[in-house]
Automatic annotation (TrEMBL):
It comes from Pradoshia eiseniae. One of its GO terms (biological process) is cell morphogenesis. InterPro entries: Bifunctional_GlmU, GlmU-like, GlmU_C_LbH, Hexapep, Hexapep_transf_CS, NTP_transferase_dom, Nucleotide-diphossugar_trans, Trimer_LpxA-like_sf. Mg(2+) binds at D103, N228. One of its GO terms (cellular component) is membrane. Binds 1 Mg(2+) ion per subunit. In the C-terminal section; belongs to the transferase hexapeptide repeat family. Its cofactor is Mg(2+). Its EC number is 2.7.7.23, 2.3.1.157. Homotrimer. This is Bifunctional protein GlmU. It catalyses: alpha-D-glucosamine 1-phosphate + acetyl-CoA = N-acetyl-alpha-D-glucosamine 1-phosphate + CoA + H(+); N-acetyl-alpha-D-glucosamine 1-phosphate + UTP + H(+) = UDP-N-acetyl-alpha-D-glucosamine + diphosphate. UDP-N-acetyl-alpha-D-glucosamine binds at residues 9-12, 23, 73, 78-79, 140, 155, 170, 228, 333, 351, 366, 377. GO terms for molecular function: glucosamine-1-phosphate N-acetyltransferase activity; magnesium ion binding; UDP-N-acetylglucosamine diphosphorylase activity.
């Protein structure tokens, strides 16, 4: 295979986004658009990937990390000028260089591979990825001669009325013979409507040299959407959402209402799981099989095993076992670990809490900084008092313990194995295993009180 390299253009500000966030960092289905591009480019096995950064360079580097090398474009003088900045890194390389814009996150790895295949098969010095659309406004148009061969690309703002009618557009993705690319870039001028050095001008320059220029038209215009404003951003979100959701459905997941289900790209879901409307599953979440998730549920960075039910709830950065029941209206905060067959009911909040196998907190509890064993029952309204205003402390509740309703467990404190805490207790000292602890005022009944009070009677 010929040596491959890639250049990702990501130095522009993205003026049309009207945002303080740099364009290529705007997320599509939760992932910055430039990261989508890099993930797809990574699969073409390039020796080097160079990201051209400029606006927000540090921020872009922070997000992309060590996945690519970088070249700085200090001033944004156009896409040709941007590619030039990679010359120090790639100028001498042999082989093929893929150039792609950081604002086209929907182009798939398969399409990139197909483009490279056509390029190699045609022995071309440049191959343009093109697409056809009824609404080509804003895109560069691919101009072909009478024999159907590509002549040049004309930017929308420079196009004649006749050229504007052309529906074949430049997707902004190309592959080039690397050496010729850098040679031709020297000859690109900025005499055009935008006063910019246009990368597409390289095509005409190559043609004038008598080199073979080819084009590969993808049947899917959707893939090639360039995101210049928030309208295109929402279109990309819809297209990618559909693509992701269809992938899950093909894998055996039931989505009751895919248009109203939001699953981010790195989420894994097992077969025969049902996802109900209004559910958002994000980050690195892994859900097992035969689960029921939703409606109206938010899950981020969680691992959920099999046959678990999560209804109308929020769960973040936590482990949830098999056959667990959560909700409605539960809040699972980070670092919680809910073991198999546990139950968490309405208005129960967990934070950094382990709830052992078969344990239950069915109603109205706060369990924070807690280690709770197996088969523990947490009565309605019980609370771990974990914070003294300065520091957080641990509550331990051992296997089989029973915490009566409306108890306060003032940490640090341990309730021993199979112990009972009477309802309404405020526990400040450890409770030994198998003991009953009552920590509340004794009840006093004042007989005949009403009659004594009612002096006029
Ligand atoms: C570009 C193409 C157009 C194509 C369209 C596809 C040019 C001149 N035009 O237009 O033919 O139809 O993409 O989406 O190439 N960038 C830099 N440095 C710069 C300028 C831009 O890094 O100096 C980056 C931007 O961050 C962006 C990409 O290059 O990721 C494309 O720039 P943009 O301004 O969006 O070009 P379009 O007008 O969309
Ligand atoms: Ca663009």
């Amino acid at each position: 295979m010929t040596n491959r390299n890639a250049i990702i253009l990501a130095a522009g500000k993205g003026t049309r986004m009207k945002s303080s966030l740099y364009k290529v960092l705007h997320p599509v289905c939760g992932k910055p658009m430039v990261e989508h591009v890099i993930d797809h480019v990574s699969s073409i096995q390039a020796s080097k990937i160079v990201t051209i950064i400029g606006h927000g360079a540090e921020k872009v580097k922070e997000v992309v990390g060590s996945k690519t090398e970088y070249a700085l474009q200090a001033e944004q003088l156009g896409t040709a000028h941007a590619v030039m900045q990679a010359k120090d890194i790639l100028g001498d390389a042999e082989g093929t260089t893929l150039v792609i814009c950081g604002d086209t996150p929907l182009i798939t790895a398969e399409t990139l591979e197909a483009l490279l295949d056509v390029h190699a098969a045609q022995k071309a010095k440049a191959t343009i990825l093109t697409a056809r659309t009824d609404n080509p406004a804003g895109y560069g148009r691919v101009i072909r001669n009478d024999d159907g061969l590509v002549e040049k690309i004309v930017e929308h703002k420079d196009a004649s009325p006749e050229e504007l009618l052309v529906q074949e557009i430049n997707t902004g993705t190309y592959c080039f013979d690397n050496k010729l690319l850098f040679e031709c870039l020297e000859n690109v001028s900025n005499e055009n409507a935008q006063g910019e050095y246009y990368l597409p001008d390289v095509i005409e320059i190559l043609k004038q040299k008598g080199e073979i220029v080819s084009a590969f038209e993808t049947p899917s215009f959707d893939e090639t959407l360039g995101i210049n404003d928030r309208i295109a951003l929402s279109q990309a979100e819809t297209i990618l959402k559909r693509r992701i959701n269809e992938g899950h459905m093909r894998n055996g997941v039931t989505l009751i209402d895919p248009d109203n289900t939001y699953i981010h790209p790195d989420v894994v879901i097992g077969p025969d799981t049902y996802i109900y409307p209004g559910t958002m599953i994000t980050g690195k979440t892994i859900i097992g099989s035969e689960c029921h998730i939703g409606p109206n549920t938010e899950i981020k960075n969680c691992e959920i095993k099999n046959r678990t039910v999560v209804r109308q709830s929020v769960a973040h950065d936590s482990q949830i076992g098999s056959d667990v029941q959560i909700g409605p209206f539960s809040h699972i905060r980070p670092q919680s670990d809910i073991r198999d067959e546990a139950k968490i009911g309405n208005f129960v909040e967990l934070k950094k809490a382990t709830l052992g196998k078969g344990s239950k907190a069915s109603h109205l509890s706060y369990l924070g900084d807690a280690e709770i064993g197996e088969n523990v029952n947490i009565g309605c309204g019980s609370i771990t008092v974990n914070y003294d205003g300065k520091n957080k402390f641990l509550t331990r509740i051992e296997d089989g313990a029973f915490i009566g309703c409306n108890s306060n467990l003032v940490a640090p404190v341990t309730v021993g194995k199979s112990a009972y805490v009477a309802a309404g207790s405020t526990i400040t000292k450890d409770v030994p295993g198998e003991a009953l602890s009552v920590a509340r005022a004794r009840q006093v009944n004042k007989e005949n009180y009403v009659n004594k009070l009612n002096i006029n009677k």
